[in-house]
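STRUCTURE:
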């Protein structure tokens, strides 16, 4: 482990900060809604957010990153834009919510950079760790990884785009248009991170129907709150 990765391992993990991770078509939106309902039923304030994005400026950076009409960024440019968006997201949305006692549930966080720009693009994880340490300085207390095979996930995503155009805007974004080998590397990177941090990650079988995955996510949240 590099010095940067050792420092990242020591970053504070906030117990009211949850992140959802997974490849395309894993069903994070359905799970996020279920987690929100569970937390709100207990009387808690819940802030649901996403990456890239999560604040007005971060959403503008998201558009630059994902719109296929733009000039394709280099891997390094993509990573730095992701962290620029994340830094703003943390400063404007995540930290203020946590400081006032709210729960924060984020559709993606820094683990996605290790998976997509690290595993997918082949960038050095130590470089990502240094950015995480310097510009994020925070980790989720609990990360739910919704895992399923690339073929099944991409088929689901295509079906979503076909039958619910509003769910994805104007069709697949720039990253969603990548080839299968890219997404296989992304999946492998997610699973490697989960194996390396079993105290933080819970891997859920996302091949199941959406309702079953959401129920498993709620059960994981309840166990986390109960200290299991």
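SEQUENCE:
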């Amino acid at each position: 482990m590099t010095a940067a990765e050792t420092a990242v391992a020591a970053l504070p993990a906030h117990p009211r900060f949850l992140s959802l991770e997974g490849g395309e078509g894993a069903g994070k939106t359905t799970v996020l809604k279920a987690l929100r309902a569970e937390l709100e039923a207990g009387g808690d304030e819940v802030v649901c957010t996403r990456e890239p994005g999560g604040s007005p400026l971060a959403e503008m950076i998201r558009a630059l990153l994902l719109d296929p009409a733009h000039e394709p960024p280099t891997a390094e440019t993509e990573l730095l834009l992701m962290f620029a968006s994340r830094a703003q997201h943390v400063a404007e949305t995540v930290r203020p919510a946590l400081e006032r006692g709210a729960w924060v549930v984020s559709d993606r966080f820094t683990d996605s950079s290790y998976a997509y720009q690290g595993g997918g693009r082949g960038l050095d994880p130590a470089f990502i760790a240094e950015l995480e340490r310097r510009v994020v300085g925070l980790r989720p207390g609990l990360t739910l990884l919704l895992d399923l095979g690339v073929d099944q996930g991409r088929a689901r995503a295509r079906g979503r785009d076909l039958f619910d155009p509003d769910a994805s805007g104007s069709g697949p974004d720039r990253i969603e248009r990548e080839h299968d080998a890219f997404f296989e590397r992304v999946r492998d990177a997610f699973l490697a991170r989960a194996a390396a941090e079993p105290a933080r990650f819970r891997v859920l079988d996302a091949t199941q129907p959406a309702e079953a995955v959401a129920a498993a996510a709620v059960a994981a949240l309840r166990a986390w709150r109960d200290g299991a």
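REMARK: Strands lie at 13-22, 46-50, 103-107, 139-147, 201-205.
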